[in-house]
Amino acid sequence: MSETNIYKRTIVKETVHSHALQEERNLRVYLPPGYNELLSYPVLYCQDGEDFFNYGRVATHMNRLILDEDYEPVIIVGVDVDKSVRTSEYSPDGNRFAAYTTFFAEELVPFIEQKFAARKERSERVLAGDSLGGTVSLHLALLYPHLFHKVLSLSGAFYEPTQVKLDAENDLSGLDMYMTIGLQEEEVKTDHGTFDFLDYNRRALKKLQERGADVYYTEKEGKHVWGFWQNVMPEALNYFYNR
User: Fold this and answer.
1) What range does the domain containing 102 cover?
2) By the 8 A CB rule, do 53 and 229 touch?
3) Is the predicted pLDDT of residue 3 greater than 80, yes or no?
4) DSSP letter (8 states) at residue 73
5) Confidence class of residue 191 from pLDDT cuts 50, 70 and 90?
6) Structural domain tally of the chain?
7) Whole-structure pTM value
8) Minimal CB count within 10 Å: which of 19, 130, 214, 236?
């Protein structure tokens, strides 16, 4: 293989049909330098796929870590979302939440693992999301613990339905989370109100730890914006892929 092929970054567009959602869902898939179908790779699944790639620069960060810091190559799957129905899909009380989580676990993951050289062990899958994307990622791990137990949460929107869900859990010792929250996220304006994300994350952290979850938690100077999350992305990736 030529040096050019080894070092190039490849992002391919895919479309998967969802019976659960009754629609086609667009994906963008990052294939690491030197991707080889005869090998196998861990997979990072990102909610808000377009934003993670364009604003979070997740593929750029991963490419650099692989090439410059000798990280193990990773496939990244960005799952696009229609912003007009994002809350209804990502929020546990949303009317599309059940269909979306079914799609993710029962349709998306098999699609990726059939089409790409993805490892099939739950320890090789990481779920990532910002705000409500962090929420649905955590709930996916709670709903499908046989598939997922690693969650990367950037300022997760852990509203009361998530707090109640955590209260109902007895043992979360299998859960492994990276959580970060900005110190300037005490009054975050959303399309359904203004909320104290810092408090929600602190409350969620306490409940997770009380139930045995392994959580790496940080509070940093930052607001509820991609400028903050992009800056912490290397640290978040480091937590899961350089241990």
Assistant:
1) 3-241
2) no
3) no
4) P
5) confident
6) 1
7) 0.95
8) 19
> Rounded to 5 degrees, what angle do the CA atoms 4, 8, 10 make?
140
SS3 200: helix
Residue 181: which of 134, 142, 137, 237 has the closest Cα?
134
Q: How far apart are CA 240 and CA 151, in angstroms?
A: 9
Nearest CA to 131 among 99, 101, 91, 97? 91
> For residue 48, what is the domain's CATH number?
3.40.50.1820
Residue 103's SS3 state is: helix
Q: Classify burial at 158, counting beta carbons within 10 Å of its beta carbon; exposed 0-12, middle 13-18, buried 19 or more.
A: buried
Where does the pLDDT of residue 1 fall: very low under 50, low under 70, confident under 90, or very high at 90 and above? very low
Q: What is the band of 7 on the pLDDT scale with cuts at 50, 70, 90?
A: low
